[in-house]
Task: structure prediction
Amino acid sequence: MDTTAAGARRVAEMTHTGRDVLAGGGQMGERLRDMDWSNTALGPVETWPEALRTLVQLLLASNQPTYIIWGQARSFLYNDHYMPFLGAKHPAAIGRDILEEVWPEIRSELEPLIDTVASGDPVHVPSMRLMLERNGYPEETYFSFFFAPVRDASGSVAGMFGACSDITAKVKLERDLTTSDARHRQVLTNMDEAFVLLDRDFHVVEVNPVAERLTQLGRDQLVGRLHWDLFPGTLESPIGEMYLRAQATSRPESIEYRYTFGDGRDCWFDVRAFPVEEGLAVFFHDITQRREQEKAASLAAERVQLALDAGAILGTWVWLIPEDRISGDERFAHLFGLDEAACREGIPLGAAFDAIHPADRERVSAAIDEVLARGGAYRCEYRVLTRDGTWTWVEANGRVETDEGGRPVRFPGVLLGHDERHRVEAERDRALTLLKTFTETVPGVVYAKDREGRLVVGNRGVADLLGVPESQFLGRTDIELLADRSQAEAVMANDRRIMARGVPEQIEEEVRLADGAPATWLSTKAPWFDDAGNVIGVIGASIDITERRQMMQELEQSDRRKDEFLAMLAHELRNPLAPIRTAAELLRLAPGDQVTVGKAAQIISRQVAHMTELVDDLLDVSRVTRGLVEFERKPVEMRTVVSAAVEQTEPVMQLRRHTLSVETNGGPAFVLGDRHRLVQVVSNLLNNAAKYTSPTGSIRLALTVAADEVSLEVIDNGSGMEASLLPHVFELFTQAARTPDRAQGGLGIGLALVRSIVRAHGGSITATSDGSGCGSTFRLVLPRAIVEQDPAIDLPPSRISVSKRTIMVVDDNRDAADTLASVLRVLGHDVSVATSGFEALAVLAQRERWDAFIRDVGMPDMTGHELVGRLRECLQDGGPRFIALSGYGQRSDEAASRAAGFDHHVVKPVDLDRLTALISN
Result:
């Protein structure tokens, strides 16, 4: 066993000395080993820094084109896979300045990249065009580059590590393919109808932009897919039969086909399929509008006939204007008292005009002249003398049609009776009443506005929003109703846009409630169409989402605070790592210097304690805020709490030269609670005051006793707090603005922990400040407890004497095992070390008696839980103590260790006092 350990040490020493760092690496490895590095900027290999040695090993082991640029001289190293990029420049490029001697012809491109990496930022260039002279002549090349900064032990960028790929062939091939593809893509793009090419198995081979627009699917969603999968249901449909028939007969086919897409769109297409060598060429265009127009025309004709049959239309006419010949049906003839046969053949307009009431003729004539001048729709009400000698009110509705020159040529129309109009108006009124009844039952705000923005329908929600009854808002616009004119104009602008586009929208609108409070409304608005398809207004519904918006903002703020906390946590954990690493280097470089070793040990111990406090604080705040901590309920004199807290924070106060004054007044200051936690509260308040108070500043702690409460104030003259921070100062991970130097430090959890502990004791805590630079005041109030006599004072435990024990430390982390063993040996114990479960079983046989086993729970070959069972089987008497080491400290972790056979569960980093007590007892 000793021989094996000595051999392992020799191997470890070899890996850090000599030229073994250049082992392997093929041809470049051999060249690097043969070079005389003493004549280069890098110097002898034995003097290379550890970072460079590690990078060279990675370089030679890599199977990708990899390189290193090191030092002020920009010395260039590379591996076998990079050699082809250099051409004739190899092997002279080894160890040379990459800008001055290796690639001077592309220095202008490379130098900015190298400068960026030297400043500490990695660089990735997916594609760069370079004119290189590597085979004796300039050639166009394309490369992808990656540079990563490499830092030395001081944290400065000492060099860079990179990889690259020659993508010249790929780029040129893509360029050639792009040129070829552009030709036929231009043809397809300029087509005015959709095109799809299907192969013989009906997979989509090619499409043009029109096909993408009509199907609302992108090219990447169409090409390569099976037609029947893209458009479900078409295989067994008429269009599927047409495709199969066209392919089988090799003859063109066409069809008008209606298809409903998955999103609910219902479209008609004119589809033509042509068999081609590749499969089937399909051309199609959207004829939905044409089909709808044909259907509408058919329905309109049917409605006219039904209206005629039902008597809703009293008569029809057609006036051929150039010929001045008006013809009408028998109903028209009856209304105007004319001969039916003559009306069918056509009569001059004047003959029909004679039947109009004399009082209405001038008005009707003016209306006819006006519509003849402009063309389009015509509507006019007047009285006519019927065949039975009575005057009847009629409503004439028609449309003047013009020729290509804009001249009126035809004037068809219908006559409606007044009774019919009254019936229609009654139906409208009933519909509006039904609509109003419906809108009153809908939550939120429901309304309808005409084209001018006047409210014509509004439910109770509208009245509540505006704070006025229905009688005061109907017929009025938002400008007249809303207090904030700019908000009203924005709402009306939204309405006008929706009416102009004819498309529904969902938008957020800012309004002010009747009580003056601001609110955000989510409005769904749509254009309001009449039977002719004309937009006559806008209809909408709105719901108040103010609370939801606030919740979203709070979630976003919480997410930002989480990110800031993670950044703070990373910073706080890195800070102690730097001195620990430096101290470790001191121990390695000066192992015999007792003073240096002592200082390094103190640094490591102090920084590890700091890191442990950070982790403990995180776990503590998690347990306390979730109510998982049980607090003692004993009488506690707050003066003793204040004394203990002042003692704990004295080093911080002295370091920053603060003046701390403590004032107490009143009688006994007893509260019921947990003394340790209350000391933690006051210490956190004092530390917080010290953190944000400049050196030589003053801090005052005042303890006041009242009849039923004990109050404590911590007042400082430090940096103070902005008003925006005060409501959040006790929230988790909240701190004042974080500066780049993180001078204050901390994780922003101290005050959150303070509030949780205080609330658990039935108290309260508040923070006040007059603003930045005006200091802060934290006031803590706890219920006072009446105590008959002073409670007993707990005495500190006596120190445990140490006696020599035989111990085995098992940890796959050799450094952790060796350092722990060294400390235990200093304390007088006989310690053996194993780095795996199987090694531990081998070491077990070297002694007959063992007093304790300290084992890491997580090991790769055999977990600590598995190992403890094996060891207990070998040690039948069960005398030794088994102690588990773990980075996890939850109750479930401790329970798992005990279930596996451990006597104790200790959380890393190890508390030596506790470990010594467990070993000695």
Q: What stands out?
A: The chain has a mean pLDDT of 81. The longest strand covers residues 138-151. The first helix runs from residue 2 to 14. The chain is about 40% helix and 25% strand.
